[in-house]
Write a structure and sequence with these properties.
Oligomer: heterodimer
Helix content of chain A: 55-70%
Shape of chain A: elongated
Helix content of chain B: 25-40%
Radius of gyration of chain A: 24 Å
Radius of gyration of chain B: 18 Å
Mean pLDDT of chain B: 89
Largest sheet of chain B: 6 strands, mixed
Shape of chain B: globular
CATH superfamily of the largest domain in chain A: Winged helix-like DNA-binding domain superfamily/Winged helix DNA-binding domain
Mean pLDDT of chain A: 83
Structural class of chain B: alpha/beta
Number of domains of chain A: 2
CATH class of the largest domain in chain A: Mainly Alpha
Number of strands of chain A: 3
Distance between the termini of chain A: 25 Å
Number of helices of chain A: 7
Strand order of the largest sheet of chain B: 6-7-8-3-9-10
Order of helices and strands of chain B: EEEHEEHEHHHEHEHEEH
Distance between the termini of chain B: 42 Å
Chain lengths: 203, 240
């Protein structure tokens, strides 16, 4: 069981537009598109061949790409972007991504619960997550460190992960500092079963 | 032999009702070639830990050993010599002397230690060259960018035969890309065999270390596990 510290919403949408972007350079084969996608995202987001061909078929159905006309999804089929595809890509690049917060952030809930559960030290819970986050950040930094200096795509992808994880660490730091300033009076460790927690504990 | 060893180190400032316990029984061992980050909020004792490790302050209790030498057995002068020869510091605000050129700033610790000016300058130029600053040797700190000033400070910290590098928020107010090049240099310095300790509240900075220890209220409360292989993330990565 793992707590997710990162958010992978919108993954398939990005693949669709990444393929369109690659086709702006000229006609390409499916396998070639897969290799170029992986290379340009720092090989951090692997794609399987099935995903590539399914996405290409949908793009073709929607009139955003066209192929050289052979039937089926043969590996020798070459794809090119249509005028409608170019317009779609341009619109997508300028559309803000969904940055609204997830309805129930798992880590926030864990900290809120830890405040109220008798016998649980919320600072210890915070530290456990902080350590794991920093360990993940160490792994990403190592990837960046070992990457060649001119792999710009990888540096950008790793930076994005590091900033995302860093923001979670900062939230934990802020939460801890807030808890120190106004400690929560946790319920007594022993309480009769089925007695509801007091109102203030609910969101 | 460890490059740095703190054993049950405590530090108390003031006395009676005004007593402040900055460090409470800290144990820390740093091996040659290892970079350790000490992470904690302000007031956690991390700067005190660094000044005690660098013999700038004495612990109230416990022992500090640098390169096998217990600091409590050294005289004031012996400690000063150890600081000039073996220990390099990088501070948040760089602490370069404005009236000296980059090369003079870097050669200063060697000259203070009695090295002939020509030898000290040659070592300074070599250190500046390693940090990509060969062309800036005769420029003054005010004519350098923030990133360049911090690289000069690192050159000064590693010039000669230092084997312990101590850094307090070394990327200071630099932007993240310049901060990253500072950490890359600290990292490379350690890979060449120097032991490094960086204290910071910044997780991105700390993530350059081999090991991150967490300090709270003067105590080490936790530390990161030894890392897996570098490619583990790409195989089981969280980004998927």
């Amino acid at each position: 069981m793992h707590t997710r510290y990162t958010d992978d919403r919108g993954g398939s949408m990005s693949v669709r537009h990444a393929l369109l972007a690659l086709l702006t350079e000229g006609p390409k084969y499916g396998l070639q598109l897969r290799q170029e996608f992986e290379a340009r995202t720092g090989e951090v987001w692997p794609l399987n061949v099935g995903q590539v061909y399914t996405t290409l078929q949908r793009l073709e159905r929607d009139g955003l790409v066209e192929s050289d006309g052979e039937d089926g999804a043969g590996t020798q089929k070459s794809f090119r972007i249509t005028a409608a595809g170019a317009i779609e890509l341009d619109a997508w690049l300028r559309t803000p991504p969904d940055l609204s917060s997830p309805p129930r952030d798992e880590l926030v809930i864990k900290v809120l619960v830890a405040i109220r559960v008798p016998g649980v030290d919320v600072h210890e819970v915070i530290q456990t997550h902080r350590r794991r986050l920093v360990e993940l950040m160490q792994e990403w930094t190592r990837v960046k460190r070992n990457a060649s200096g001119d792999d710009l795509s990888l540096a950008l992808v790793v930076d994005a992960e590091l900033f995302r994880l860093d923001s979670v660490v900062r939230w934990l730091d802020a939460a801890e500092s807030r808890l120190r300033r106004s400690p929560v009076s946790t319920p007594a460790p022993v309480r009769p079963p089925n007695k509801p927690v007091r109102e203030g504990a609910r969101r | 032999m460890s490059a740095l060893e703190l054993s049950r180190v405590s530090k108390v400032y003031g006395s009676g009702a005004g007593e402040v316990h900055a460090l409470r029984g800290v144990d820390l061992i740093v091996e040659p070639g290892e970079l350790v980050a000490v992470m904690g909020p302000s007031g956690s004792g991390k700067s005190t830990l660094l000044t005690i490790a660098g013999s700038l302050e004495e612990p109230s209790r416990g022992e500090v050993t640098v390169g096998g030498l217990p600091l409590s057995r050294l005289s004031r002068n012996e400690k000063a010599a150890l600081r000039r020869r073996a220990i390099g510091y990088v501070f948040q605000d760089f602490n370069l002397l404005a009236g000296l050129t980059a090369a003079e700033n870097v050669s200063l610790p060697l000259e203070l230690d009695g090295a002939p000016i020509r030898t000290a300058r040659a070592a300074a130029l070599a250190a500046l060259e390693r940090l990509d600053l060969a062309g800036d040797a005769d420029r003054f700190p005010d004519d350098l960018s923030g990133g360049e000033r911090q690289r000069v400070a690192i050159a000064r910290a590693v010039v000669g035969q230092r084997h312990l590098l101590l850094a307090d928020e070394p990327s200071g107010a630099l932007d993240s890309v310049n901060g990253e090049s500072v950490m890359r240099l600290v990292r490379e310095t350690c890979q060449a065999g120097v032991a490094g300790v960086v204290v910071t509240h910044d997780a991105q900075l700390a993530s350059w270390a081999d090991r991150v220890v967490f300090l709270r209220d003067g105590r080490i409360v936790d530390q990161t596990a030894r890392p897996d292989g570098p490619e583990s993330l790409l195989e089981t990565g969280p980004a998927r």
